[in-house]
Amino acid sequence: RLSHNSAQSLRSLNTPISADAPRTSPPLFARVTQRLEMPEVMQMIDSEVFMAFTTYATIVTLKMMFMSPLTAYFRLTRKAFSNPEDCRSGKTAEERKKMLRSDPDVERVRRCHLNDLENIIPFIVIGLLYSLTGPDLHTAVLHFRIFVGARFFHTLAYVVPLPQPSRGLSWMVGVGSTLSMAYRILTAVLFL
Amino acid sequence: RLSHNSAQSLRSLNTPISADAPRTSPPLFARVTQRLEMPEVMQMIDSEVFMAFTTYATIVTLKMMFMSPLTAYFRLTRKAFSNPEDCRSGKTAEERKKMLRSDPDVERVRRCHLNDLENIIPFIVIGLLYSLTGPDLHTAVLHFRIFVGARFFHTLAYVVPLPQPSRGLSWMVGVGSTLSMAYRILTAVLFL
Amino acid sequence: RLSHNSAQSLRSLNTPISADAPRTSPPLFARVTQRLEMPEVMQMIDSEVFMAFTTYATIVTLKMMFMSPLTAYFRLTRKAFSNPEDCRSGKTAEERKKMLRSDPDVERVRRCHLNDLENIIPFIVIGLLYSLTGPDLHTAVLHFRIFVGARFFHTLAYVVPLPQPSRGLSWMVGVGSTLSMAYRILTAVLFL
User: CA of C110: which chain B residue's CA is closest?
Assistant: First the structure.
């Protein structure tokens, strides 16, 4: 363990030009994977991978948050609400009562939102942990791009709606990207 | 603030008393932003920001978890269940069948719970990533406090219920805090 | 375990053999807790705790993702869909319209999925933050195992379904594990 973390192997990776230059210490997962006895595939928190994850996770979370105002838009235009206190635009009590109904377009957006929660949250959890296992930058960015692209297309296919199997396939592509990252995590870090 | 985050102040924070004492290296995101060629705006994992995030994220997650027993309370007092196996308090088969119904109060708490999932999870994802971009402590804590306060008020406004637009406004304040943090992330770390 | 986490052992871990060798700095939360003036219970990112969290979080997230294909399976075998574009297997327009219905088995799986979102996501958020507070490895792994075991049993009890209170108790065990970790976080890191 000690020799693994030794100056020797670390220097070969992080060697500063001058001996006086500040030295970086091995990041968390470098040490983790050294315990896993993979000194040659020295994995580390690849800062660029984590930055890419941060960017894509933020974008896809914003997309998910956008479903709330979209639901509100359909509720207001279709005049279909769930809560009596939301029906203020109705003039008479009877009109307000009629607005307490479920509308197919509203329900469609709500299902799309729930599907986002069911898929985007696993992506974020698994993508975060995956980013810490030191994957190759291009492989990681490819995973993130495929997932985020698939989810944008999924929303389009759900809300328009496009004929099946466009929605089903985009869902599957997103799940595939997440499963591929989960496989990488479990093969790299399994600790039961 | 700039001078606060500069290499100078970083050293003054981490400098050991004696030159032989172990030296702390710049944390992860300090190195990240160095690559971004912002050596003067040296951002770092501000431990206090991360502690504040940890505290507020835990509190607001506990608030979200509290919606489950609240739903159970309304189901038991309103005698309105979704699953046949939950209707054990009914004595006759007919009585048990009558308990398989949806109740407006139960549905209200459930919508509030789902709204929490739709809003608190984006806050936690974006707040975590935001905490790693090295924001100013006071700005960060302000974001966390506003969000958590808004969500507590939102739950109150939803469950009581308070007349609109109290619920709508508290929802908007929470979303505003999250969007502001997302803007900061994307301007600081964009890596597509 | 205390001696393990003590300043002594930390030094022996991080002290370089020669003064010229690069030095590893105490990890993030070690410094955090030093500020909290707990130098003797020096907490640190225990890499093994984080690896264990990564493993269990990935497994339980995969379990949650599995609810989607399970829902699809019940939708296809029960011929009960929510979206008109999903009813392509119907030959006549009338047959397709009849497939737009809600089925008790489908709704059961969907409730189970939503319950997963309501419970597994808090576990992941709180478990991640808890892993960073430097808990004892055995305590941490116990928390993770109990939670993940309880949630697998919960799914079984919900989908079969098993008679109550098996589902209620497994839900409670999972919540108990999460609350116990949240208590640890708030006592270790409270920063309001």
Answer: B82
User: Roughly what angle, to the nearest 10 degrees, separates helices C166-189 and B47-78?
Assistant: 150
- The 10s digit of each residue's pLDDT in B58-99 is 999 999 999 999 999 999 898 888 888 888 787 888 888 888
Phi-psi group of A42: left, alpha or beta (phi > 0 → left; psi -120 to 50 → alpha; rest → beta): beta
Minimal Cβ distance to B55: which of C125, C163, C192: C192
Instruction: Give the Cβ contact number of residue B132 at 10 Å.
Output: 25
User: Touching check for B49 and chain A: CB below 8 Å?
Assistant: no
State the sign of the Cα–Cα–Cα–Cα dihedral C29, C33, C34, C38.
Answer: negative
Q: Residue A177 and residue A148: Cα distance in Å, rounded? A: 10
Residue C192 and residue C180: Cα distance in Å, rounded?
20
- A175 to C68: CB separation less than 8 angstroms, yes or no: yes
Give the tens place of pLDDT for each residue, A2-51.
333 333 333 333 333 344 434 344 444 433 333 333 222 223 345 788 88
Is A50 in CB contact (< 8 Å) with chain B?
Answer: yes
A 83-112 residues with CB < 8 A to B: 83, 85-86, 88
- The answer, for A186 touching chain B at a CB cutoff of 8 Å, is no
Q: Considering chain C, what percentage of its residues have pLDDT values greater than 90?
A: 49
Alpha-carbon distance values, C109 to A140, C160, C166 (Å)? 32, 10, 17
pLDDT tens, C140-189? Answer: 999 999 999 999 999 999 999 888 889 999 999 999 999 999 999 998 88
How many angstroms away from the CA of C114 is the closest CA of chain A?
8
Please tell me which residue of chain C has the smallest CA distance to A11. Answer: C22
- Enumerate the residues of chain C whose CB falls inside 8 A of the CB of residue B61: 122, 125-126, 182
Q: Do B192 and A52 touch (CB under 8 A)?
A: yes
A44: three-class secondary structure by DSSP:
coil
B25 touches chain C (CB under 8 A): yes
What whole-number distance in Å separates Cα of residue B74 and Cα of residue B67?
A: 11
The complex's ipTM?
0.75
pLDDT of residue C113: 94
Q: For A41-58, what is each residue's pLDDT tens digit? A: 223 345 788 889 999 999
